[in-house]
Amino acid sequence: MCRSCATTATPNDLPADATGPFPGLSRRGLLTGLGLAALTVNLSAGTSTAAAAEAVTATAAATAANGAWACPALGRFPAGGHYGAPRGGASHAGQDISNSTGTAVYAAAAGTVVRRSRGGGLPGRTGNALVIAHGGGQYTYYGHLSAYRVGLNATVRAGQRIADMGATGNVTGPHLHFETHAGSLGATVNPVSFLAARGVDLAGGWSRIDPGAKGATVVVIQHLMNQRGYGLAVDGAYGSVSVDAVKRFQRSKGLAADGQVGPATWPKLVYTLRQGGNGSHVRALQTALNKRGAGLAVDGGFGSVTTSAVRAYQSVNRLVVDGEAGPVTWRALTG
């Protein structure tokens, strides 16, 4: 856990609402996480404040989980390592994720590495750090690294390995200190709610992918659906045809047919795969591994090369290294 990594600024979030439509997210955290902090609602005659708030929440739910973000590391949340925890006369600026030194650290979203130095050039931070700029005033910070895997000014993809977890700086043990900044570098927000608003569970749970999403994770979904006979175009765009197919699949499994591929749908959709398998589900696995840098040919054949890639991914993320893609490995890959 970090001994320092504090900010003297007031945390840019309100207490989490455990009863709202997004448990654990504050209303301000949700809106800030969506880039909607400046959104105004026209309260015309006959439109209540409550109805307007519901409209904002509905908009958030429909657009947030767009597949552009990824979980930066696997591990556990240590006691006292949460955002806003007291650090002397200041507050903890991020969320700690504990695991062993050398655990892979990934870019949470596409962007450019703008800081690569001790403390990332930010006050109160210690140890080796990276800062990635994602555009629109959004930044992510990765601290206490044992090794860098990208250079300053590098352009990175969501899910690309950028560093190794470590214990550099003022810490009690190896972990990733992860921060999210919205509006400007230095304006921290709660990383857990920030990523949850984007469909990512920082604690390592299944992702949430909404209609309208694009990218590699959508390709994974389309391949998995095709293995089940849905005949989708694999174009990486989660449009109306793919959404309708997912809704039909959800109904067939007795799930809520909302079109969101989330914690209820993923476990029904994925397959447990091992060497010798062949088909679109293997293409889905190869695509998910490539998002994490495996560089595989997406040929649908689970041969020795794919087995080695699965084992390598499991090893650097401290999973059971058996070369089998079961639910735990799938959850990590698609998170």
> Could you give a short account of the major beta sheet?
7 strands, antiparallel
- Total strand segments: 13
Overall geometry comes to globular
Summed up, the helix count is 9
Q: What gyration radius follows from the Cα positions, in whole Å?
A: 20 Å
Distance between the termini: 23 Å
Strand content: 15-25%
Uncertain regions spanning at least 5 consecutive residues: 13-62
The structural class is: alpha+beta
Q: Mean pLDDT score, rounded?
A: 86
- The helix content, as a percent range, equals 25-40%
In sequence order, what are the helices and strands, one letter per element? EHHEEEEEEEEEEEEHHHHHHH
Structural account:
By secondary structure, this protein is an alpha+beta fold. The chain is about 25% helix and about 15% strand. It is built from nine helices and 13 strands. The protein has helices spanning about 25-35, 50-65, 190-195, 215-225, 240-250, 265-270, 280-290, 305-315, 325-335; strands at about 5, 85, 90, 95-100, 105, 110-120, 130-135, 140-145, 145-150, 155, 160-165, 175-180, 190. The strands form three sheets. Strands 4, 6, 7, 8, 10, 12 and 13 form a seven-stranded antiparallel β-sheet that branches. Strands 1-3-2 form a three-stranded antiparallel β-sheet, with no helix packed on it. Helix 4 (about 215-225) packs antiparallel against helix 7.
